[in-house]
Design brief:
By secondary structure, the protein is α/β, with parallel strands linked by helices. The chain has 10 helices and 11 strands. The chain has a 6-stranded mixed sheet, sandwiched between helices. Strands 1-3-2 form a 3-stranded antiparallel sheet. Helix 4 (105-122) packs antiparallel against helix 5 and helix 6 (167-177) packs parallel to helix 7.
Length: 298
């Protein structure tokens, strides 16, 4: 069992206290198989009234509004909001490039996933946090309830950089294993030589409410380097010798800006929410400000 200190490495006591007042919100409507604390707009049979509709043969007579019948001489059926459970998935990119930065992009991704997962656990949602390339023989657990925080952190502590799987293959494998509905948050730097487009297309085929959190470090957004350098690609060890000049840095920033804009546009056109996050942005600010604005939490 992870210690209290290992929990605090990702989620401080102050952050935990703030997160337990939040809840995850889906922009879509899903059918639940267990009763939880989530309510959908799907018409069902609970205590919260929603609407009326005309009675048709075969409807349950218990839900006829006899008061309306007495006034209008016409049968109407009362409709109610049905309670359902919410499924939350966080998919963490643990490729070598995510080890870059201080703190690393992977550490930041784990903080985000743990924070959102804790919000779900506090509201009795079903929570599953998984890293790209997770083994089918050792799948991530599906968790529910605040008492599952320790199991969640135990799994998080095992996530290390160096997963030798492409972004596309990792997302594809995840989608094949998880065909349910719910909220899915992909946390990645989207750096893959095969491109991110194929990976994200797999997500659009799922009946999920998809968020793409594009994590980059300050060193990547505004590199402070100059002179002759030997650059090594941390994903495949390709080597490039370059002379860093101001024009080259300007070109790099334009290329990165185009990459970010392209990812945002790709997601927006396919109904996925996109957010680029620098690892220097406090997790509490990211969740309570930016993700709240995008409708993931309230």
């Amino acid at each position: 069992m992870p210690s209290t200190s290992s929990v605090n490495e990702l989620l401080s006591p102050a952050l935990l206290a703030h997160l337990e007042r939040l809840e995850l919100v889906s922009r879509k409507i899903f059918r639940g198989r267990m009763k939880g604390e989530r309510r959908s707009r799907r018409k069902g049979q609970s205590v919260e009234f929603a609407d009326f509709r005309n009675y048709v043969a075969g409807d349950d007579l218990r839900f006829i509004d006899w008061n309306l019948y007495a006034r209008l001489d016409k049968l109407f059926l009362k409709l109610f909001l049905e309670e359902e459970d919410l499924h939350f998935y966080a998919l963490i990119d643990a490729s070598d490039s995510m080890s870059f930065g201080e703190p690393s992009k992977l550490h930041y991704a784990k903080q985000i996933a743990a924070a959102l997962g804790f919000v779900g656990l506090c509201r009795a949602d079903r929570v599953k946090i998984e890293m790209l390339g997770a083994s089918r023989a050792n799948p991530a657990p599906v968790l529910r309830g605040r008492q599952s925080l320790w199991r969640m952190m135990e799994y998080m502590n095992k996530i290390e950089p160096g997963t030798n799987v492409s972004l596309t293959q990792g997302v594809k494998d995840f989608c094949l294993r998880n065909s349910g509905k719910g909220i899915l948050v992909l946390i990645s730097d989207l750096m893959d030589k095969q491109g991110y487009e194929h990976a994200l297309r797999f997500l659009t085929a799922q009946q999920m409410d998809v968020y793409v959190l594009h994590v980059l470090s300050p060193e990547e957004l505004d590199p402070d380097v100059k002179g002759d350098l030997r650059l090594i690609d941390c994903e495949d060890n390709d080597v490039a010798e370059v002379t860093i000049s101001r024009p080259l840095l300007d070109r790099y920033k334009r290329t990165l800006a185009a990459f970010i804009d392209g990812a945002r546009d790709f997601c927006n056109r396919r109904g996925m929410a996109y957010l680029m996050a620098s690892t220097e942005t406090p997790v509490e600010q990211l969740i309570t400000n930016y993700l709240r604005q995008r409708g993931l939490v309230r």
